[in-house]
Amino acid sequence: MDRPRTRKSSEASATALGGAAAPGGGAAPGEASARSAYPAAVERLIAEFARLPGVGRRSAERLAFYILKSDEPAAIGLARAIHDVKKLVKHCRVCSNLSDDDLCAVCADPRRDRSRVLVVEQPKDLIALEQTGMYRGLYHVLMGRLSPLDGIGPADLTVDDLLRRIDKPDDNPGGTKVEEVILGLNPTVEGDGTSMYLAEQLKKRGVRVSRLARGLPTGSSLEFANRAVLADAIQGRRSM
Ligand code: ZN
Predict the structure, then answer these.
(1) d(CA 68, CA 63)
(2) Ligand 1 midpoint to CA 186 (Å)
(3) Tens digit of pLDDT for each residue in 55-87?
């Protein structure tokens, strides 16, 4: 966000960014156009693009020009897709996966093994696991991980929903009792801390707790693996 200061219009872009965030957003663009070479509406679009992750001022300008050049149905289609994703997509009431309905496609599918729940941090982790086609149980999306330094505790995640599914089988799809919880958090310090916390809560409830295997990635070489990966691989070895 500090990068755009290379232009003479550093102040203008700052105003535009501030303006975009301002409620209503009606008054600010006019103010921005006083100093920007772009018409107010274009400046506003650039400012909005520049707020996206990984998009700098230059890329934002390129995207804005792409929109300007594209035909109206394509541009309106993009605007509508953004609108719909905010208005229509919700979180599954059981597992917090992204969904069009109250219950996501995984929870609603009676062919899944509903006695098994795989816990992940984010919906995109669930999607990555689904794409393997190797897992036929249900999921639970925590919507983050515990991070005491950032003030993120269990109440900021969907931990209560997970424990309720286990305590009350009626809250799990099909009224099925959860027998096993698989912890699929990222192998980071915070992910491990969250796993430990959850394992403690889950074991109290008599449910079987396991963790996704970690160690050497398929197709890699021992000589290029770092010490932490090798240590995980030795600890997680399997008989054959
Ligand atoms: Zn669900």
Answers:
(1) 9
(2) 20
(3) 999 999 999 999 999 999 999 999 999 999 999
